[in-house]
Amino acid sequence: MAREIGVIIDEGFAGCPEADWLRGIAEQVLIAEGVGPDVELGLVITTQEKVRELNRTYRGEDRATDVLAFYLTSPDKEADFVSPPDGVVRLGEVIISYPQAVVQAQEQQHSVEKELIILIIHGVLHLLGYDHEAPEDERRMRAREREILNRIEAGLVS
Questions:
Q1: What are the extents of the domains in the chain?
Q2: How many CB atoms lie within 10 A of CB 7?
């Protein structure tokens, strides 16, 4: 079975890359992390308002953000979950605010595509158990994000 990466792009985002491109970036992150083929995840490109609503509803933070990750399986390696009978690991969903990605790309003076790559990497790493709550965890996650970004930009992941 191949990795299943569902992509939903809300309407009205001129210049947003195609679903296949977004799917390819998420797949490259999974490959870079050594994730096998029996995995599913969702990637949603949406509005700032929707991301803020999700952040308020599920995280208790009434503010906009750039990316959210919602787990379907626990990233805790110690958790004792029963595997689904089909053997597919359903990681969860990465939700990205496209308008916020555009703003951040302008602030960082790089392309929107690069900003989307950064946000996809960040969100998928969260689904794989990375976090940035403690300083050491943040250093580890940021370093891994940079490594994967460099590999994707150099065309070394495929």
A1: 4-153
A2: 19
Backbone angles phi, psi at 79, to 5 degrees: -65, 140
| C-alpha to C-alpha distances, 146 to 21, 86, 120, nearest whole angstrom | 20, 34, 12
Q: Which fold has domain 4-153?
A: Collagenase (Catalytic Domain) (3.40.390)
**pLDDT value for 90:** 86
Cβ-based neighbour number of residue 136 at 10 Å: 9
pLDDT the model gives residue 1: 58
pTM over 0.70: yes
Contacts of 14-19 spanning 24+ positions with Cβ under 8 A = 15/112, 16/45, 16/98, 16/112, 17/113, 17/116
Task: With CA atoms as reference, report the closest residue to 93 among 132, 58, 124.
Answer: 124
Q: H or E stretch including 101?
A: helix 98-108
The pLDDT assigned to 146 comes to 96
Give the SS3 label for residue 13: coil
* CA pair distance 47, 76, nearest whole angstrom: 30
Give per-10-residue mean pLDDT for the chain (158 aa): 89 92 96 92 96 94 94 60 68 96 96 97 95 91 96 81
Residue type, 156: L
